Amino acid sequence: MRDVPARQDAPADRPGEVVRGDLHLEAMADLTSKKDTPKIDGPVKKDLGPAPLGCSSGFTNIFAYASNMILCQTTGSAFNQCKAAGCAAPGHLCTASEFRARGGVAQAAPAVAWLAGCIRSGGSSSAPTDMVCGDCSGFAQLNADLAWSCSSGAVLLNSDAVAVGLATASTCRRVGTNSATTAAYWKPLSTEQMLQAVVCCN
Fold it and tell me: Do the beta carbons of residue 198 and residue 114 sit within 8 Å?
């Protein structure tokens, strides 16, 4: 039997179709690539996480309880709890619960600084709530026990202030109610008291 030499040009699959070697395969590959590639609208945004916590202009970070809680102090004008400011955006004045959860239970403060905490806003005292207390007007009412020793439970402060907020301290106190769940390095202050520091969280 005699070998028949292969033709150089492969026959078309059907009339009118011209197959030009790899061009047909490249076209098919291109269609497949376009079909399988997801469309992305606009630039890809990378999640950078929360912005670093800092103090606003005129305030200095003098103590860090944690990466998400710092103490900011100014040498400028003092302020009451209602006007407490000093945290750079997006930071905020730390609440009582944030303060206890992020180091306030174990670490003494180097300065007295406002927190967003309240133990008396008219009426009797209570366990700390996460808020600025009253309108900082300083009205007086009946005396009430407001602070106790963390170690002995003895009364440390009795006050007639109607609006009593919370600020950091160098010694541990139970505040609002005499319970271990209210213990931290803080102290009650009448909200009209003037301070130069705040505790900032993010």
Answer: yes
Assigned domain for 123 exists: yes
**pLDDT, tens digit (0-9, with 9 covering 90-100), for 117-132:** 999 998 889 999 999 9
| Domain range for 176 | 59-201
State how far the Cα of 202 lies from the Cα of 132, in Å rounded to an integer: 17
Quote the number of domains for the chain: 1
Omega of the bond leading into 110 within 30 degrees of 0 (cis): no
Q: pTM for the whole thing?
A: 0.75
Query: What are the contacts of 57-62 at 24+ separation with CB within 8 A?
Result: 58/86, 59/86, 59/198, 62/110, 62/111, 62/197
Number of C-beta neighbours around residue 143 at 10 A: 10
Query: Which residues, at least 6 apart from 106, have a Cβ–Cβ distance to it below 8 Å?
Result: 185
Residue 31 maps to a domain: no
- The reply to whether 11 falls in a domain is no
